[in-house]
Amino acid sequence: MKIAIDGPAAAGKTTLGKRLAHALGFLFVPTGAMYRAAALAHHRGLALEDMDITVGEDGRVFLNGEDVTNLLSNPELDELSSRLAADARVRARLVELQRRIAAGRDVVMEGRDIGTVVLPDAELKIFLWATLEERARRRQREQGGTFAEVLEAIRRRDERDSTRSCAPLRPAPDAVVLDTTGKDPDEVLKLVLKLVEERRARLAS
Ligand code: DC
Predict the structure, then answer these.
(1) Is 179 strand, coil or helix?
(2) Could you say which architecture CATH assigns to the domain 2-196?
(3) pTM here?
(4) How sure is the predictor about 142, in pLDDT bands with cuts at 50, 70 and 90?
């Protein structure tokens, strides 16, 4: 079974994805972190052809064998990864890596274009959403900074991610849209586990 989780920045995709994958015993693939690792590679001067990105247990991300997970969450890579993600060559390379990782196994994959481009045949597609203000509050708790700065950075990134010509952020027509505003991670996980059970029952019948 393949589960796609898409949505805007700081909607809780990684929190949900990690916990869902753990509950189901699936591999968790954080493609946002893969774009961040690509941005780090770019910053280090690595050519696209020389960049190998893999995913390990608990969504850890490796760049040419080095575990770079702890280097990926900061405002500089938020911005650089979003800009790099508009490049069709970068996307083609990462989509190829992502499909290879998902081939023949159960995965929970989070990102922007998983339900629309990377895994269009996923059995369950979730589009996770929350208001801009709520997402800014969540991101501010993780990364610090002023509320106004964080809100503006997310707004800019949402706009870029949704208006680029190549694989823009949008819900797949068959995605279930979940508004997580005011909901805690336990509630969201419970809701999605119920959707997984329903989907499994429908697939088995
Ligand atoms: O989810 P995130 O904030 O970690 O993602 C970082 C950037 O990578 C985001 O601004 C857009 C891009 N991205 C993408 O274009 N497609 C994906 N499948 C995942 C992320």
Answers:
(1) strand
(2) 3-Layer(aba) Sandwich (3.40)
(3) 0.96
(4) confident
Locate 175 and state its tokens.
């995605």
Strand order in the sheet with 176-179: 27-30, 107-111, 2-6, 124-129, 176-179
**Structural domain boundaries of the chain?**
2-196
Atom of ligand 1 nearest to the CA of 77: 6
Choosing from 82, 113, 163 the residue with most ligand 1 atoms within 8 A of its CB, the one to mutate for a pocket test is: 82
DSSP string, 32-95: HHHHHHHHHHHHTT--GGG--EEE-GGG-EEETTEE-GGGS-SHHHHHHHHHHTT-HHHHHHHH
Q: Which two tokens stand for residue 45?
A: 């001067």
Max Cα-Cα span within the chain: 52
- CA distance linking residue 3 with residue 145, whole number of Å: 33
In whole angstroms, what is the distance from residue 129 CA to residue 10 CA? 9
Q: Is the dihedral of CA 98, 67, 58, 13 positive or negative?
A: negative
Measured from the Cα of 13, ligand 1's closest atom is 1
Q: State the average pLDDT over residues 169-188.
A: 96
Instruction: Give me the residue label for tokens 């998902």.
Output: 102
